[in-house]
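Section 5.1 Outputs to date
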Amino acid sequence: MGGPNNETVGDSFASNKSAKVFVAGHRGLVGSAIVRKLRHLGFTNLLLKTHQELDLTRQSDVEAFFAAEKPQFVILAAAKVGGIHANNTYPADFISINLQIQTNVIDSSYRHGVKKLLFLGSSCIYPKFAPQPIPEEALLTAPLEPTNEWYAVAKIAGIKMCQAYRLQYNWDAISGMPTNLYGPNDNFHPENSHVLPALMRRFHEAKVKGAKEVVVWGTGSPLREFLHVDDLADAVVFLMEKYSGLGHMNVGSGKEVTIKELAELVKEVVGFEGELVWDTTKPDGTPRKLMDSSKLAELGWVPKISLKDGLVDTYKWYLENVKQ
C-alpha cells in the first residue's frame, strides 16, 4: 500500500467508472460541465445534491452526508461566486460562505475515507500586480485585488487546507485554479454576472430591442484570458487521473484577448448590428490577467475549444435556456 503519490493503476480515477464520485456544486457553471464530462466518459455512480437537499455551509449536514454515502472521489466545485459589483456588495457572504463550504467538504472527505479530492479555485487568488503570465509561485507574494479579496482569501485558504491535509495526513487532496470561465449554465444576471455573459446578454437584449448602441464600462484595453468550461472539465478529469502534487495547478487557455476584442467577438456571434460605445468614466479593473499554465501543459494537457467556437456554443445555450 503506497501513499497518495504512488497509487496503483486499479485505484486510478478514470479506470474506476463505478466509483462513487461526489461533485459538489453540480448545478453551477463548473459542476454541471464536470457532470456532463463524467457521464460522457461512462461514470455511473455520481453523487449529486442540490442546495435544498444538502446545505454545504452546515457542518453537521455535511458530516452526516459523508458518513452515509462514503464517496470515493470528491470534486469540489461549489462556491459563492460573482463579479466586481457582487463582491463589493456582499463581502461577508463571499468570505463566510466559501470558507464554510470548503472547510466542511474537505474535512469530511478526509474523515470519511475519500481517496482523492480536487478543490477548484480561481485565478483571482493571485496578487493584483502579479507577474504576467502568472505562475503558481506568485501566490501570496503581494497584495490582492481589493475588489475581490474576500473571495480570494477564502480560496487561498482552501488551497492551503488541501496542502495541510496532505502534509499532516498524507492524504491526496489537490487544487486546480482555473482562469476566467464561460459556457453553458453561466450566470447571465444583469447585475451579478462576469464580463463575458454580461456582454452576451446585453448585446442580445439590444439586438431584440433594435437598440442603436450598447455602452460598455471602461476603455476595453484590459487583457483577459477565457477558458470554455468543457475544457476545464476535461482538465479536471486529467488532474484526478494524473496529478497528486502538493502545489496547486493553474488551468488556463494560454490565449489572451482585450475586452474590446472580446466585446466585438460577442457582438458578432450574437449578431448585434448597432454601435459599441465605451464609457471611459467607469473602472477597467486589472490591466492584464493571464495565467501561466505551462506546468499543466508539461503534464500533457492542453485546451481544445477556441474562443469563437466556445462563444457560438454558449450563445446557443443562452437562446435555449435563458428566459427572454
